[in-house]
Amino acid sequence: xxxxxxxxxxxxxxxxxxxxxxxxxxxxxxxxxxxxxxxxxxxxxxxxxxxxxxxxxxxxxxxxxxxxxxxxxxxxxxxxxxxxxxxxxxxxxxxxxxxxxxxxxxxxxxxxxxxxxxxxxxxxxxxxxxxxxxxxxxxxxxxxxxxxxxxxxxxxxxxxxxxxxxxxxxxxxxxxxxxxxxxxxxxxxxxxxxxxxxxxx
Length: 201
Prior knowledge:
10 helices, 201 residues, single chain, mainly alpha, 3% strand, two-stranded antiparallel sheet
């Protein structure tokens, strides 16, 4: 598993345009926290395991990883790569694809929209229980609840068709095994594409 701080550092870099800083999409700490939650959720669903080792807590404004909160303590506006620092590890291509997918899907939402979205999802709600909205809490979000929720989302995203396309989780897991095997075998995404081509010919 990765260190969540490295995941955060990479997310900060995705939207940064070094040649045109004024056109960069900078993540504020609140929005970054929500993207980390979605990275962990989709990682559980698509890779079959947690993306990072640190726990996510149910704070009043949604899911928060305290280690990253402390990393940017006191900062409210957009975080630059210089402020975030360099990731300390090189990510596998499958993980990079996952992070890019989450960034593309969720960075377009305003921070308050992301707060509202996470408040409506079961992991944060279950961890908060009957607490008042503004009450502090360090209750940890259940990985099992997150995995179930995001796996259901993944299943619903698969459209039915003549050819039985694999579930997204199967594609991600096959690609990850391909990388671990130093390129031996055929990634499932390629296998599905080749089978579709064969049917069409």
